[in-house]
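Page 37, continued from 36.
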C-alpha cells in the first residue's frame, strides 16, 4: 500500500515537472528540431504570401511609362486575366518549395546558434526567457540572412522569371538560364540581394526581439513564455518596418534578376509577332520573323488591348540583351526614368507580403519548435 502510494506520488511529481517544463520552456532545442521547424515555417510563409509577392514582382518590372504601373488592383487584374485564373498568382511557387526548406533550416538554426552564444536575459524579469539585445539581434540577422541567401538567390531569380510568365518547369528554367546566360546569371543579383537582405534581416531581427520582449513584459503573464499573439504582433511589426525601409534595394534586385526577360506575351499576341522583323536597339542586327525572342510584351499590355505603351516594341526587341551591368546601372536607369519615387514602386504589395510573412514564419517556427522539442522528451 505504501509502495503504491509512493509510486502514485512519484508519477504525479513527474507529471507536474513535465507541465512546468512545458509552461516555462526556454526555447532551446536540438539542431534537428530547429531545422525541421525552420523548413516548415519557410513552406508556410512562402505559400501563404506568394500571390502578393507575384503582384509586387510584376509592378517592379513594369517600364517607366507603363499605365497604372503603381496600381495593385490593375496589376492583379492583368495577372488573373492573362493566365486564366488564380493559378497565375502561384506561378513559380515550386521554386520556393524546393529552396526554402534548406534555406530556412539554415536561417533559423544559425539564429539559434547566435542566440545561444550571446543572448541576454530579459532585463525586466528573473525568469529563464532569453532575449537578444537589438545589436545582438542585428548580428544574428546578418549571419542568418547570408546563409539563407546563399541557397535562395538562384531560386529567387528563377521564381521572379516564372512569375512573369517564363519557363514551363524549374528544370527547364535552370537549363535555359545556364545555356543562354551562363551559370553566373543565377547569382547576378547576389551582391544587391545581400545589400537588400542584410539590412532587412538586421532590422527585422532587432525589431522582432525588442517587440517580443516588450510584449512579453506588458502583455503576457509574468514568468511565462511569449504567447502566439505576441509572436504574431512582434513578427508583423518587424516585417512591416524592415520591408518599408529596404524597398529601394528590393526594386534594384528585381531589376537585375528580371532584366534579361520581361513579362511573357499573352498567347493572343504571338501570331501577330510571327511576321514582324524586329531591329535590335543599339545595333544594326535584326531578328528574323518568327524568331524565338522570348515572347515578351505582357508588361506593356493587358488581356484585352494589344499594346498600351510605346515601350512594347523596344522591350520585345531587346529582351535578349542584358541591360544593366550592375547595381549602379540599374539605379541610374530608375532615377533617370522615374525619379527617386521609382525606387519605392511596389512598396504597398511588399508591405502586404512581408508583414504577414514574418508573423506567419516566426509563429510557425516557434510553435513547431516547441512541439518537436516536447516530442524529444518522451
Amino acid at each position: 500500500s505504501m509502495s503504491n502510494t509512493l509510486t502514485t506520488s512519484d508519477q504525479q511529481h513527474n507529471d507536474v515537472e513535465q507541465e512546468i517544463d512545458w509552461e516555462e520552456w526556454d526555447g532551446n532545442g536540438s539542431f534537428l528540431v530547429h531545422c525541421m521547424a525552420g523548413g516548415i515555417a519557410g513552406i508556410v510563409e512562402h505559400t501563404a504570401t506568394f500571390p502578393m509577392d507575384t503582384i509586387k514582382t510584376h509592378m517592379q518590372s513594369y517600364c517607366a511609362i507603363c499605365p497604372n504601373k503603381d496600381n495593385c488592383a490593375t496589376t492583379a487584374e492583368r495577372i488573373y486575366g492573362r493566365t486564366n485564373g488564380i493559378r497565375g498568382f502561384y506561378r513559380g511557387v515550386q521554386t520556393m518549395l524546393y529552396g526554402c526548406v534548406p534555406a530556412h533550416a539554415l536561417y533559423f538554426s544559425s539564429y539559434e546558434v547566435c542566440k545561444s552564444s550571446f543572448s541576454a536575459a530579459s532585463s525586466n524579469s528573473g525568469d529563464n526567457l532569453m532575449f537578444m539585445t537589438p545589436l545582438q539581434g542585428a548580428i544574428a540577422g546578418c549571419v542568418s540572412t547570408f546563409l539563407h541567401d546563399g541557397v535562395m538567390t538562384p531560386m529567387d531569380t528563377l521564381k521572379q522569371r516564372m512569375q512573369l510568365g517564363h519557363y514551363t518547369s524549374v528544370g527547364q528554367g535552370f537549363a535555359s538560364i545556364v545555356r543562354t546566360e551562363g551559370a553566373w546569371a543565377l547569382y547576378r543579383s547576389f551582391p544587391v540581394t545581400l545589400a537588400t537582405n542584410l539590412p532587412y534581416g538586421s532590422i527585422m531581427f532587432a525589431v522582432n526581439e525588442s517587440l517580443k520582449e516588450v510584449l512579453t513584459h506588458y502583455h503576457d503573464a509574468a514568468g511565462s513564455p511569449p504567447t502566439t499573439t505576441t509572436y504574431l504582433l512582434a513578427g508583423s511589426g518587424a516585417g512591416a518596418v524592415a520591408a518599408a525601409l529596404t524597398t529601394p534595394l528590393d526594386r534594384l534586385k528585381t531589376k537585375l534578376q528580371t532584366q534579361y526577360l520581361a513579362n511573357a506575351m499573352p498567347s493572343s499576341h504571338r501570331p501577330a509577332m510571327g511576321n514582324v522583323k524586329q531591329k535590335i536597339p543599339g545595333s544594326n542586327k535584326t531578328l528574323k520573323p518568327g524568331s524565338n525572342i522570348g515572347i515578351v510584351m505582357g508588361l506593356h499590355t493587358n488581356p484585352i488591348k494589344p499594346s498600351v505603351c510605346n515601350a512594347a516594341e523596344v522591350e520585345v526587341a531587346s529582351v535578349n540583351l542584358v541591360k544593366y551591368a550592375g547595381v549602379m546601372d540599374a539605379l541610374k536607369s530608375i532615377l533617370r526614368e522615374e525619379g527617386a519615387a521609382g525606387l519605392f514602386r511596389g512598396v504597398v504589395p511588399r508591405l502586404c507580403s512581408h508583414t504577414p510573412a514574418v508573423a506567419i514564419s516566426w509563429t510557425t517556427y516557434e510553435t513547431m519548435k516547441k512541439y518537436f522539442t516536447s516530442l524529444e522528451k518522451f
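The two ends are 29 Å apart (CA to CA). Flag for discussion at group meeting. The beta strands are 120-121, 130-131, 278-279, 286-287.
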